[in-house]
Amino acid sequence: MSIEGESKPMQTGRVDWAEVHRRLEKARSAMEQGWKPGPAEKEKILRRRAHVLAKEPKKAGAGETIEVVEFSLARERYGIETSYVREVYPLRDVTAVPCTPSFVLGIINVRGQIISLIDLKKFFDLPERGLGELNKVIILSSESMEFGILSDVIIGVRSLPLSGLQPSIPTLTGIRKEYLRGITEDRLVVLDAGKLIADKTLIVNEEVGL
Length: 210
Known about the structure:
Layout: H1 17-33, H2 39-55, E1 65-73, E2 76-81, E3 85-90, E4 104-110, E5 113-118, H3 120-123, E6 136-141, E7 146-151, E8 153-161, E9 180-183, E10 189-191, H4 193-198
Parallel strand pairs: 2-10, 5-7
Antiparallel strand pairs: 1-2, 1-8, 3-6, 4-5, 6-7, 9-10
């Protein structure tokens, strides 16, 4: 241990314990004579630190990603977070429900559970392609709600860096912007599944037997 401003004792192979104790005592005295805040001042310091920390914005990590199911609608590619996807189910029989909006395709029976089916092409006013053999139902689920959305083709699952999502593009207009999470550089439109599943206009409450 050395004290700034003093020369070190010469190394002679023997420890000068008197010199060591003198320096330790001097260092202790210097520390005791330093400024020590009282209880009130400590409280002020802690409050100032808490205020500064509260004002610091929380930033997502540079490597933070989300996982999405990528699918196609009317020749456009969309993605939806897998954390909201319960399963992907093949489209089979659909029972129409009277007195519902045009974007409610009907209801389906998924292993005994009745789930409403939403046609996002109509909801987003996209071109119609009709139903085909490749149509799949993406079942979205939260703690309080479940329903299915129709897709033309399931492309796969991929991870996306959050830093690479753009808020929007000029060519994206209409109702889709309200449910937009972001757009990737390769024009994958990532939907906000939380907003979709919380929208009560997409839910069919009437029970219809199959």
